[in-house]
Write a structure and sequence with these properties.
The protein has 385 residues and is α/β, with parallel strands linked by helices. 36% of the residues lie in helices and 23% in strands. The strands form 3 sheets. Strands 2, 3, 4, 5, 10, 14, 15 and 16 form an 8-stranded mixed beta sheet that branches. Strands 1, 6, 7, 8 and 9 form a 5-stranded antiparallel beta sheet that branches. Helix 4 (72-85) crosses helix 5 (102-113) and helix 8 packs parallel to helix 10. The longest helix is centred in the N-terminal third of the chain and has 20 residues, at 9-28. The two termini are 38 Å apart.
Length: 385
């Protein structure tokens, strides 16, 4: 059994305080809350949640590494897609959940090199800690472009530009449902038993969730899975605010036929702690990231229902190849082994089916812009939706 790294006394104190807050919330709610409410508190409770406290989250010294942290090639390739779309809009990029700001840095630098700088780059984030790191990192890396970057904690009422989100949808609180050994389908929630947080299943009290669960969950005993109402609501909200432009989301996930496959009976919910995968969602709340895979069929349908054009859907490898990642890699001298090998290794992680190339997907929507996007130019645009 793998031994997880020990948390510092200061970090443990934050987690214990958050557990107290969650337990109080459960008590005030009558002894039970939906899992989505627990996940929201674990990730976003002010001053204590994973994304709202001061712990270091991304990178080699954090809990996980995202594509922009691996290599600038990711952002540089993505910039080729933005450069194609920005002139068709008011020239604003809206990045939701910008992490350390690394993707913003790489996008702005490459867009400047391409002569396609956005008029504004707006970062929307819920984490005060990450927003401060973003300001510091962007100011240090691109001081001459820092005045183009703005921050916001809520979605604008109207957006004319390019909306992007990398590993955004997976971090939104999800609902959990469970079909028991008698094949009864119930909503999974959280209670306190013997002083510890634990699961408890109850009958549905949400008609929308009950209907989705009845349609999506296979009729087999002991089947656990997730349904994200938050993902659906977010795409609908973006569509409601987008007067013209494009929406590009990149994340790990599946089409519904694969997500709710009978063999995927344990769901996709995972914790990420110091580069370890944790199955127990109640391990050190506030110190561990919680994520679930994205149901891209639901994301696609939400965008269509909200009046957006579904432009394309591809795995990350195909999207990045279409955007010229190999050409960007070829600009490095393979004889300069010290420089070339780390870059090539990072590119391999982005593209390999065994790494991020197949599990991660890109989905694009448009309103009032061309339907011919570089990232979906080759390959089947909607190959499994």
């Amino acid at each position: 059994m793998t031994t997880l790294p020990a948390a510092s006394p200061e970090a443990l104190a934050v987690s214990q305080a958050l557990c107290g807050r969650i337990s109080q919330t459960i008590a005030e709610a009558g002894g039970w809350i939906p899992f989505s409410h627990y996940m929201e508190l674990a990730l976003y409770a002010p001053g204590m949640g994973y994304y709202a406290a001061g712990s270091r989250k991304l990178g080699e010294d954090g809990d996980f590494v995202t594509a922009p942290e691996l290599t600038p090639l990711f952002g540089r390739a993505l910039a080729r897609q933005l450069a194609e779309l920005l002139p068709q809009t008011a020239g604003v990029v809206y990045e939701f959940g910008a992490g350390t700001g690394k993707l913003a840095i790489d996008l702005l630098a490459e867009l400047e090199a391409l002569g396609r700088l956005p008029r504004k780059y707006v970062i929307l984030d819920l984490s005060p800690d990450l927003m401060e790191r973003q300001r510091e990192n962007i100011g240090a890396a691109l001081p001459h472009l820092a005045d183009r970057v703005e921050w916001a904690s809520r979605m604008p009422d109207a957006m004319d530009g390019i909306v992007i989100g990398n590993e955004l949808l997976d971090a939104m609180p999800c609902e959990m449902v469970f079909r028991d050994e008698d094949r009864a389908l119930r909503r999974r929630g959280v209670t306190v038993r013997d002083g510890a947080l634990c699961y408890e299943d109850r009958d549905f009290d949400d008609a929308e969730l009950a209907g989705l669960a009845a349609r999506l969950v296979p009729d087999i005993p002991r089947y656990e899975t997730e349904i994200s109402l938050a993902n659906r609501g977010f795409i609908a909200s973006v569509a409601g605010a987008l007067t013209r432009g494009a929406v590009l989301m990149i994340d790990y996930g599946h089409a519904a036929s694969e997500y709710y496959h009978p063999e995927r009976s344990m769901g996709t919910l995972l914790g990420h702690y110091r580069h370890h995968t944790v199955q127990d969602p109640f391990y050190l709340p506030g110190l561990m990231d919680l994520t679930c895979h994205v149901d891209f069929s639901a994301v696609a349908q939400s965008g269509i229902d909200a009046g957006l054009d579904l432009i394309g859907y591809a795995n990350q490898a195909q999207f990045l190849l279409n955007c010229g990642l190999v050409e960007l890699l070829q600009a490095f001298d393979p004889n300069d082994v010290k420089t070339y090998l780390p870059v090539a290794k990072a590119a391999q992680r982005l593209l390999s089916p065994q790494e991020m190339g197949e599990t991660f997907k890109a989905i694009g929507f448009g309103r009032g812009v061309s339907i011919d996007w570089l990232g979906f130019a080759r390959g089947d645009r909607c190959y499994t939706l």
